[in-house]
Write the structure tokens for this entry.
Amino acid sequence: MNPPLLRLLALTMTAAHAAAGCGADTSEPSAGEDKPAVVASFYPLVFASEGVGGDLVEVENLTAPGIEPHDLELSADQVRSLSDADLILYLGGGFQPALEDVVSGLDESRALDVLEGRGFLESAESESHEGEEEDHESTADPHVWLDPTIMAEIVDQVAVRLSRIDPAHKKVYLDNAAQLDSRLENVDRKFNTVLSHCLTRDIVTSHDAFGYLAARYDLDQVSISGIDPEAEPSPGRLAQVARFVEEHDVGTIFFEELVSPKVAETIAAETGARTEMLSPLESAPPSGDYADAMEANLAALTRALDCD
Ligand SMILES: [Zn+2]
């Protein structure tokens, strides 16, 4: 041990405490005490901002764990958090209209719509899936985060914005982003490898969340409900999906954590298919993080599609 060094450390800590305790007279935030406050609208953006910011940022999730993020409603406290935030991360395009309304009234330079300028929604609209004829203009697919390569782009956008807000830690943000990106690239590589050898490519899902995942890995998604998981499928729709399952010999109906599995179970019982969980990652997974949950998704897909 080195007593002088310890004493110096103790002194430094005392000074830091003092600075934290009576900083009212300084207009300049003291280094290290004032972390950028990030408000993220739902889990995938929490994953990106915590992964990039680590201990250097304070992240608030607007969508509580276990709550389905579509059409999120905001509390007064959350509106206050939004107006105090250094960075607001959200996904535009009508996914959470109440949040978009609040953001449009704030200083937009503090907000980052991760879809902005990417043309994601346009490309989603040009790729139509089976059973989507009904409603053309209002069904742009927001579920971009289920393509891990797009998730990596979101991570990079977050790193750029945090570096601008807190330039002293730019290197940490960029390094963290690079690490996260390589995990995501690894997930993408595994999906590509495993899903290239499957007997079938049809996935029947609860709500229309897997369009980007399907497009990335050349799968065909048929969803029981539409883009919004709350929408009750009509009896006609159920019969249509059941017919598809039988005609295409689909062995697995996927359900998800935040939506009742009843509809999936009904179709499974009617057709003799099994049910299995496929996570749309709209809320934090019960264990692990986005990348872990995507690996679990890949395992489920591997079983369902007979891949080897
Ligand atoms: Zn969704």
DSSP finds eleven helices and eight strands in the chain. The chain has a mean pLDDT of 86. The radius of gyration is 23 Å. Residues 70, 143, 207, 209, 229, 280, 282 surround zinc ion (CB under 6 Å).
